[in-house]
Amino acid sequence: MEKLSVFLFLISFISLIVGLISPDKFKKIFKNKEVTRKFILKVFGTASAVLFFSIGVFAGAEQKVNLDFSQPRETNKTEIVTTTELKIEQLTATTTEEVKNTTSENTKPVINEYVPKPIVKQGAVETPEDKITYYAVAGVTDGDTIKINVDGTISSYRLIGMDTPETLDPRKEVQCFGKEASNKAKELLIGKKVRIERELNYGDLDIYGRPLAYIYREDGLFYNKYMIEQGYAHEYTYKKPYKYQVEFKTAQKIAEENLRGLWSPDTCNGNTTQSASTSTTQVNETNQTTNKYYTSSHYKTKYYYPASCPGWKSLSPSYLKSFDSLEALLKVYPSRTLSPEC
């Protein structure tokens, strides 16, 4: 009945639209009536409204019937209990069989282990230890310029925030404490590997095209700061601040207050622009002694010792070897490394 009502409603509604547009088309149907738009609206409009209402009535009645059929029929309680018990027995049998099959296939039980997720500190960006790359030091030009082998390419790196007395500048004489700074750099870096850190405020290169860097040894020694703090270099700011400027200035103050290295009255008294030749004979003799390096010729020996490190005094005199420079020692014994006690 609902479908018939829909069909009649569509015919009535379409007739209403056509009649309102062109009433003359219905004159043959209504011969004895004056067919006007008002007449069309009265006839087909009323029919459309009645049919639309009837569609709603039939649809509601059918839905009610469907709902009545959807209600569950009354079931005998005994039948429900019997059926439930039967299903439980079947399920128990099936589960027992599956457990037996699983146990026979896998003798070891499967254990889901909890794997904790790494904790990430908010605001901290740390480079994982296994991603830090260390590069071999290929040579030392002076205290603030070294050569590093990066993936087979050797480049001279100018070290940031520090300035050691000149030793190789053709425009200048060798400056006070320049050789000492250069020798200390060789002592600390020759045969070592270092990690490179860049300075965001300075870019990658200096005005001479040399890469700029801070360097750290594998044991964690921050070379740039160490050289300033021990009196082998001045703190040096080029035009604008850098990351460790405050730290380096503090390191210089410590060296100056403790009269270390170039700050000592017996060396340069802080004035490294003077020529090294103006130093006293006593200072030169002391430096000559200090610049000695020692090792043992015994085949089991692994280390070398600078003169300032007392460890060399415990070496057997029959095997003791001395050299005027670290380069000379490493040329004869290239596998030697600096003693840990130094």
Automatic annotation (TrEMBL):
InterPro entries: SNase_OB-fold_sf, Staphylococal_nuclease_OB-fold, Thermonucl_AS
Membrane-spanning parts: 6-22, 43-61
One Pfam family cited in the UniProt record for this chain: SNase
Annotated SMART domains: SNc (SM00318)
Domain TNase-like: 131-265
Keywords of this entry: Endonuclease, Hydrolase, Membrane, Nuclease, Transmembrane, Transmembrane helix
GO molecular function annotation: endonuclease activity; hydrolase activity; nucleic acid binding
Matching PANTHER family: EBNA2 BINDING PROTEIN P100, SERINE_THREONINE-PROTEIN KINASE 31
Protein name: Micrococcal nuclease
The organism of origin for this protein: Candidatus Magasanikbacteria bacterium GW2011_GWC2_37_14
